[in-house]
Amino acid sequence: MTKKKLVEEGSARVRKELAPHYYIDKVEAGCDEAGRGCLAGSVYAAAVILPPDYDNPLLNDSKQLTEHRRYALREQIEHDAVAWAVGVVTPEEIDKINILHASFLAMHRALDQLKVRPEALLIDGNRFDPYPGGQPYTCIVHGDARYQSIAAASILAKTFRDDYMNRLAEDYPMYGWSRNKGYPTKEHREAIRRYGLSPYHRKTFNLLGDRQLELDFGD
To answer: What are the start-end ranges of the H helices in 81-147?
Structure first.
């Protein structure tokens, strides 16, 4: 085995530790969303303020965690955070303002609910609609894999949205939402072709992929 191979395998086993904060001497809230690329359901976002000396080496981008680990970490975050909240924007609102602005609005709604006012914001991604509170913000690409507060927000947004889609799946089992969570899987799109739309589908999205024009919205 070559030296390069050994380095690659070693790095795969050890996760880079996430930074505890971005701003110095400011109360900062990390923000992230879940469900932006889905065909159905609301988009969720969370805002999390962690203690200034907080360090949890288990925090990571929610997509890199098992379901069991995500829910275990959610309990820790809810217990340890100085403040946390979840914001939601409905499919109807998404269709009116588009998913990008809906994602930012969900973050705004989460921030609105925080019991502690942040002095600065950390946003996962490369864009953001400024928060009406006027706090300075920094957009960080792949921030959920770089900063603990954003990772914590990604876990809350993901798990709360998963709970929501699981509840919807009880009334609409044909779409497989308990498995695909509304994302554009083959199973999901085949169900849309067969059964049509639910009230929770986003009509402005490419629901059928290449066969979009065959879909009757029933309007």
So the answer is: 91-97, 99-113
